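Box 3.1 — From sequence to structure: Dual specificity protein phosphatase 13B
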Amino acid sequence: MTLERQRGVTAETEGWVGCPMAEASLPELQGDTEALPCPSILELEELLRAGKFSSNHVDEVWPNLYIGDAATANNRFELWKLGITHVLNAAHGGLYCHGSPDFYGSSVSYMGVPAHDLPDFDISAYFSSAADFIHRALSTPGAKVLVHCVVGVSRSATLVLAYLMLRQQLSLRKAVITVREHRWVFPNRGFLHQLCQLDQQLRESPMSPAAQKELGSPSSNAASQAPRPHMVTESWSVRPVMGLCHFATQALVLLVLLEPLAQVDTQKMIRAQFGDHPRACNSIHFLLLPALPLSHCIQFSQKQHQVCRDRRLEVGSTKYRSEKTIAWARYPHRMDSLQKQDLRRPKIHGAVRVPHYQPPTLASLQRLLWVRRAAMLSHINEVWPNLFLGDAYAARDKYKLTQLGITHIVNVAAGKFQVDTGAKFYRGMPVDYYGIEADDNPFFNLSVYFLPVARYIRTALSVPRGRVLVHCAMGVSRSATVVLAFLMICENMTLVEAIQTVQAHRDICPNSGFLQQLQVLDNRLGRETGRL
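Predicted structure (token representation):
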């Protein structure tokens, strides 16, 4: 939908006409919201939940400023149709985002911010540079800017909100209300905390727009020492190493600088370690960095859930399976060609199984999840014969579900403010629905659903031509956790083997709390089956 300009603050616009949602939001924005105190994290989340729920790949949230996902950013024809002239990639270097100067060519100006969607990641270091990039672009006649990450909900939305605060002089509350009217966004709590800090500092230190240009983080020192993002204007003489995590990139830069002294062939070392196409080490929604105190994170209020009464988890066989146990091959197969007899369980570092199973530590599980194997971004993947893992888009695509022959759906993000489908949404379809109102929160107790969901999936797969879709919002944390629990309970896999099995076909990243709950399950099953 094209949004027409109505009037400007300077050369920029304050509101739009021709869009009912924008017109409805103007009276709310014209109120004296500046007199209100800085909103808390919970207040911001309530504001975000009250906004539009959009399933579009891209939405115009400010005149000529778009927020989108990786599917849009990777579609150059779609960008050409939209008239995009500038791209800000908030997930630069990630597996799913192909953004680079070579990819877009000379017709599109590109800026890459290598941010992770993690509460501990300091995205405020890029507030100022990202706002400057967007401001310069929108000051160019005929320019249109796309800000994107993988899903277009957290990282990209955070940078757009920071731009509206720094360059459009909106309060955080106004910025959230403005964006939510056109797209459903939901930055993680760490990013919301950093936006609150920026909002507080802008309120306490009134500055001119020129002075605010220099303010990009809660601390001016942090802003001056902020890492420089990857920016492209006309030409590049030095290109960053793509697809490596932050620490690996720093190490390789040191190797390049010291190569004349140490006589190290850096290129050979890179190829030896990562092959011709090294892949990213970052994940989508997991604490990769050392855990910081979570005092600034406010826990979601959890509903009282029924505690599972089973004292003992049912396992298909009490005998621990050997290498003959079914598993997936290293490389993904076509969805219509997956057969159990074609699968082999991947080995861990090529080592032979030791007699006594060693339970993995949380750090080792994190490292295992960093290894990316899926080659393409997809809304749905078959991770076990007739068992699919997907996101909210896949759950709402009735045509795709019918095409795949899905007969059972497990929604691990059910609820009014999450993926609110329910049995009524699939009325008229031969689909059985199972909903769980779970939060993607490390403090949420998802383990009470491990056994009942595993039983449900096992029963569904036992039905002739039964096919199960397990999904949440993104298909990487909540839904992945219950799938891993199913493989451990019903297929007698260890936690490491279950992760390797699913990771071979879809990138997953349960949050730290869910991983710890899976560790408890792994230890319990290990004692019952004699592995420990």
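Summary of the box: Residues 372-529 form a domain with the Protein-Tyrosine Phosphatase; Chain A fold (CATH 3.90.190.10).
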